[in-house]
Amino acid sequence: MPLLGLRQNLAQFTLLVAVNALVGGTLGQERTVLPLLATNVFHLGLYTSALTYILAFGLSKAAMNYFAGALADRFGRKPTLVAGWLAAIPVPLLLIFGPNWGLIVAANVFLGVSQGLTWSTTVIMKMDLVGPARRGLAMGLNEAAGYLGVALTALATGYLASAYGLRPAPFLVGAAYVALGLGLSVLTVRETRHHVGVEAAAHVAAHAQAHAGLTSRQVFTLTSVRDRSLSAVSQAGMVNNLNDGLAWGLFPVLFASAGLSVGEIGILAAVYPAVWGAGQLVTGAASDRFGRKGLIASGMLVQAIGLGLVAAGTSFGVWLLAAVLLGVGTAMVYPTLLAAIGDVAHPAWRARAVGVYRLWRDGGFAVGALLSGALADLFGIPAAVAVVGALTALSGLVVALRMRPRDHKAR
Question: Where are the transmembrane segments (predicted)?
């Protein structure tokens, strides 16, 4: 019989952490370079047009997040993970050789499909392995690996872009990540679906509705609307990635317009996910001990303060402080939201609940691209940042008022 627990599954867990670092790296190859590619190479004037790649990424990733849970339940975790890596193969090729913006957008459709399958599956597999007692720690380690991969790759590609140009050098790193991630997933990752039955046998429902016999439609409505805690978590995830989409698409353009060099922009693009990634090593475990609700609500407020500094700032120093605050706030929120989903969802439908949550969360990229692009076109980037900051603070208030604290401390 499979054993649950981090120590009992340390080798496989560590391997999955490494795989998710590579998943994050395939996203990080774009964070510094692609906004500059849009303006400097393809000469896209309107912010809304330039952000089409984030819209494409957000929609495709959100959709695949939803299907990833169902696919992982039906066909297994490992086949879903491998399929995600296969979808990533065209991405660096299109980014390097794409002669028009339409092919760059197409690359981000493939990237969104890949990220939705690979990242969702590593989350599900780690939940399978560790059981409920260390779920926050597990999510902290998973998300830390992914976003440190984003940060280090954003920094590296910023250096490569400044030294060798925007193409092709930065995207060769992404090609190497895809090859390594696919090889590890095929050759060394093991299926974890059989761990679910062990946890399900001992599962204590968080409340009366948390039973095993739910259809996919019931899981969707429960996670999206009906359950107070699950719906509060879903909206917070969406707003979190709304402001991350803003940071991804418009921050480099704002920093460049203020005269910062590509190297300085690369540092700022890396600091935010680096603090976010490293901070989750602490916040995930802290949520196991102290509960989820307080970290989520206060983390959204810290993010809002960071966004306010970005809107008001005009110098590298102020923006560096803002990037740190954004990273801290997101670290408080990101693994905690995932752990909160796992707390309420029954093991039998947890993978589908994670998929629904991640559908809403990564739909925030698309909403952020449309909203921030339109606001930036009408009123300028600082105004767009300020509006998103206000929405982030409001989201934290929704969590404080709607989420049940008793469901969100590890059992």
Answer: 44-68, 80-97, 103-124, 145-165, 171-189, 246-275, 295-312, 319-341, 379-401
